[in-house]
Amino acid sequence: MSVAAAPVAASARPVRGWRIAPGLALCAAVAAAAYALAAWEQRLFGHPWLEPLVLAILLGAAARNVWSPGARWTPGVEFGAKTVLEIAVVLLGASVSAATLSSLGVFVVVGIFLLVVVGIVVGFGLGRALGLTPRMALLVACGNAICGNSAIAAVAPVIDADGDEVAASIAFTAVLGVIVVLSLPLLGVLLQMSTLQFGALAGLTVYAVPQVLAAAAPFGPAAAQTGTVVKLVRVLMLGPVVFALSLVAGRRGQETRARRARPAFTAWFRGSSSASWS
Questions:
Q1: Taking 90 as the threshold, does the pLDDT of residue 129 lie above it?
Q2: Residue 107 placed within a domain
Q3: Interior CA angle at 256 toward 251 and 260, to 5°?
């Protein structure tokens, strides 16, 4: 690069930052409104029934129906949906300390990881049996097995899920989460579970940390603490799952491109298998 071109490139960098600023500011405003509503919900009910992510999606959908953002907002919104979301996933997993994991023991941590994998596989199979598309079934399975809406939002870009699939998956997971929160304490009483047992059950079944606290609260602080720790270990699976799905999606994309590049007379040999998630 020539000396004359260097100042031009240097001056172009802040321009890109200014391009994403309006969209990021819009995303930040929606997020702030969602957290304000969650705080009001906490004061009104004692615990939030809808977490800020759900409220943010509802607010964004309502705003989109009233006002359609133009091209000025697009770069920042896309940056927030991709880069910022990926950074948030990494920070979410980093919130679980090594001391917390060591206090649980290796066998407990491995057992939780295996249960999450089984939950994703079984959830995906049930979704397909109920007629959901592969992408929709995978979103619902990951949401219920890992960390609800955060998992759905993180997995959706990897498998190229559209907005309708994401919204439907989040709505289904939210409704199911409320049902579990309301019915789980009754199940614990019927099974005569101890405080630690019920805390572990809440951490393994309820999809959001605030809802884990709400479900475990009737069994006391020890159950809430146990449920929170188990739930945070489930959150650690989000990074590996997204990474594994990105590898699968990349391999499927390569197979699709290679198949399209073949001559037409060889296409019949591969059959009608699809490389997409739809």
A1: yes
A2: yes
A3: 150
Asked whether residue 111 is assigned to any structural domain, the reply reads: yes
Query: What pLDDT score was predicted for residue 92?
Result: 56
For residue 269, tell me if it sits in a domain: no
Domain of residue 178 covers: 12-65+76-252
Neighbour-count burial of 81, counting CB atoms closer than 10 A to its CB (0-12 exposed, 13-18 middle, 19+ buried): middle
The pTM of this model reads 0.58
Closest CA to 149 of 255, 246, 34, 47: 34
Listed residue (171, 156, 167) closest to 277, CA to CA: 156
For residue 80, name the pLDDT band (cuts at 50, 70, 90): confident
Closest to 198 (Cα-Cα) out of 209, 208, 187, 207: 187
What does R_g of the chain's alpha carbons equal in angstroms?
22
Q: Check residues 262 and 34 and name the one with the higher pLDDT.
A: 34
Domain total for the chain?
1
User: CA nearest 146: which of 223, 241, 50?
Assistant: 241
Amino acid 182 reads L
Amino acid occupying residue 153: A
Check if the beta carbon of residue 156 is closer than 8 Å to that of residue 36: no
